[in-house]
């Protein structure tokens, strides 16, 4: 009986030491992983990195180190970790294949946050739709349309095609076309349009508005009118100037042939 007791005591001593060492590895490793997480978060915060990326990267660093610590602790107990790592790798591959769409959205969102093709508040076209950006998340981008609908676009779809950012430059050119009759005075019409533009304080002085003859239509002489405005004033100026020019033409006896061609209808609502 005594040899068995001695053998049990020997095994308890050996494995007890290994168990204590494994627990120390887990405790110290977890503590080190938390420190690394905080350091990464502070460093990225000081560099002005987006909070979403900062949170993701710091948490990723924590879990990667924690996984390494767990594997080291299991190795200390004598468990073969090679097969364990292979199982984790296979499981990761299976999950990656199952979630490849979500991973594509995640990768696209990560790149958008880094390169910033647009920011919250910008009016953009992308992913087959258009609207004002409300949220930029890791998997989706949320837009608000001018008629107050919320559209959630997967980030992979958003980056799959061109993105048009109408707000990035701060200013926009308003393109309008006004037609007059062939019997009307071109110089007089140009002067009337110029006075209407000059009366609107939203129209920028630089660059100066362009007022040019664009074409000689079947029933009208067409002016192309291109003033510059701040991006937020675009549609207000477009609608107001259209109305004011019509009234000014009426007051000055300048005819507008019917039907008036609307070459602006192809543009998207901002």
Strand arrangement across the biggest beta sheet: 4-3-2-1-5
CATH topology of the largest domain: Helix Hairpins
Number of helices: 7
Query: What percentage of amino acids are in beta strands?
Result: 15-25%
CATH class of the largest domain: Mainly Alpha
Largest sheet: 5 strands, antiparallel
CATH architecture descriptor of the largest domain? Orthogonal Bundle
DSSP E strands, number: 10
Number of domains: 3
Output the radius of gyration. Answer: 33 Å
Backbone structural class: alpha+beta
Overall geometric form: rod-shaped
Mean pLDDT: 80
The separation of the N and C termini measures: 90 Å
Helical percentage? 40-55%
- H/E order of the elements? HHHHEEEEHEEEHEEEH
Poorly predicted ranges (pLDDT <50, ≥5 residues)?
260-269
Protein name: MscS Mechanosensitive ion channel
Keywords: Cell membrane, Membrane, Transmembrane, Transmembrane helix
GO molecular function: mechanosensitive monoatomic ion channel activity
Organism: Desulfosudis oleivorans (strain DSM 6200 / JCM 39069 / Hxd3) (Desulfococcus oleovorans)
